Amino acid sequence: MLRKGEEALLRFKASIVDHHGMLSSWTTPDCCQWKGICCSNLTANIVSLDLHGEYDYETESWSYYISGKIHQSLIELQQLKYLNLSYNSFSHIPEFLGSLRNLRYLDLSCCYFDGKIPSQFGSLSHLKYLNLASNNLEGSIPTQLGNLSKLEYLDLRGNSFQGNLPTELQSLSKLEYLDLAFNSFEGNIPSQLGNLSKLEHLDLSFNILKDIYHLNWEVFLTYNNFILVGKIIMEISNSTIGLPKLRELSLIDCSLSDHFILSLRPFKFNFSTSLLAFDLSENAFTSPVILQWVSNITSNLVELDLSYNNLEDSVSKHFGMAMNSLEILDLSSNSFKGEVLKSFMNICTLHSLYMHQNNLTEDLSSILQSLSSGCIRYSLQDLNLGENYINGSLPDISAFSVLKSLDLSYIID
After folding, report:
1. Which of 17, 24, 25, 232 is 20 to 30 Å from 327 at the Cα level?
2. Are 109 and 134 in contact (CB under 8 A)?
3. What is the pLDDT of residue 184?
4. Distance of alpha carbon 187 from its chain centroid, rounded?
5. Nearest CA to 72 among 88, 89, 93?
6. Close Cβ partners of 71 (under 8 Å, ≥ 6 residues apart)
7. Are the C-beta atoms of 261 and 290 separated by less than 8 Å?
8. 3: pLDDT strictly greater than 70
9. SS in 3 state form for 254-313?
10. Where do the domains of the chain lie, and which CATH numbers do they carry?
11. Can you give the pTM of this predicted structure?
């Protein structure tokens, strides 16, 4: 006799193309023993279906993945709490998934889905985790997602979403993780974003963020990213609640420049004590004033990434004195030269410093001597000075008591 839900699973299997035998175990008498199936010990109901694809990076090929149609028989698994179909190949996201009202976890990332997010997803009132990243989804985000009052994690990166973010997202009061990178949102990000008081991670990187309200087309084409990202942070900083728990903020490749710093200088930030990781890489900063600006808004950073900008000249000593918690500093792929490293010698917590691909021209002995004269010699574990114009031979480095790696590769002497 078939267990409740087993027949539904077999119909699902029949609609699937199983390239690598992922479902080969789906023949034994007890479906709770099948690969990817987990049942409740109390009720024997199927509560978890995990059929995520697996990529073997050694062979550079897929070890497991399935494709085809997600059969509507899954609607019979009403006790399902966990559903992971990521890294497979399907077409549209079926609307009936919105009827699985007990779902807590739904991962449909990297599945080649096209079309839109079904508005029926707004009925998943118990959902805490929703990952739709790296698909081909388009259109606007349905307002119904604002009904997911228990949602803690929302990943929409790597799609083709357009239009405004719905103001209903302000209702996601428990949201801790929000990733909107690699999309094409238009208009003004609503100021209500600043009311997500539990948000810890916010990623707006690689967006073609557009504000069409106050721009003519010429200015729009050049400065759309900088202006809207600036507005986002201004709105957050000006909001009543702000983002007091924001721990990670990523603004990679958002066309930010030194004008961005000037526009935000008067503002205070409610996340200044919580922010631990700040990624501003792949922008167009040229002045090291950005480092001083960062140190003015927060002194609790653990990670700061300003790689792949156009930074040059000296860095204010204020930065090194203010950064009391910084552990990782990435300034690689810039245009620093001269004695810039002296600015970091008294960051007593710094264990990773990446300065490769710059224009450092000093003697290696002078560089290491400068660093060793500060407290960084007791904390520095990884130092990358590769691909610079440093000269001289390797001196005694015993002063760096915990140093694990020193990269001097491709130094042009």
Report:
1. 232
2. yes
3. 79
4. 22
5. 93
6. 11, 12, 14, 15, 16
7. yes
8. no
9. CCCCHHHHHHHCCCCCCCCCCCCEEECCCCCCCCCHHHHHHHHHCCCCCEEECCCCCCCC
10. 276-413 (3.80.10.10)
11. 0.74
**CA 335, CA 236: separation in Å to the nearest integer?**
32
Instruction: Kindly tell me if the per-residue pLDDT of 54 is higher than 70.
Output: yes
Give bridge partners of residue 137 from the DSSP assignment.
Answer: 115
Assess contact for 49 and 77: CB atoms under 8 A. yes
The C-alpha atoms of residue 410 and residue 358 are separated, in whole angstroms, by 12
What is each CA distance from 71 to 20, 123, 301, in whole angstroms? 19, 20, 47
**Triad 198, 236, 186: Cα angle to 5°:** 105
CB 14 within 8 A of CB 39: no
Tokens of 262: 């000037």
Structure tokens at 206: 């690689």
CA distance 183 to 389: 39
Q: How many residues does the chain have?
A: 413
Q: Which amino acid is at 76?
A: E
**N- to C-terminal Cα separation, the chain:** 77
Structure tokens at 139: 């259109």
Cα gap 103→48, rounded to integer Å: 9
- Report d(CA 106, CA 124) in Å as an integer: 10
Structure tokens at 111: 């599945």
- Best CA proximity match to 282, nearest among 334, 246, 232, 329: 334
> Residues 141-196: pLDDT tens digits?
999 999 999 999 999 999 999 877 888 888 999 999 999 888 877 655 545 566 78
Take residue 45 and report the two structure tokens written for it.
């109901």
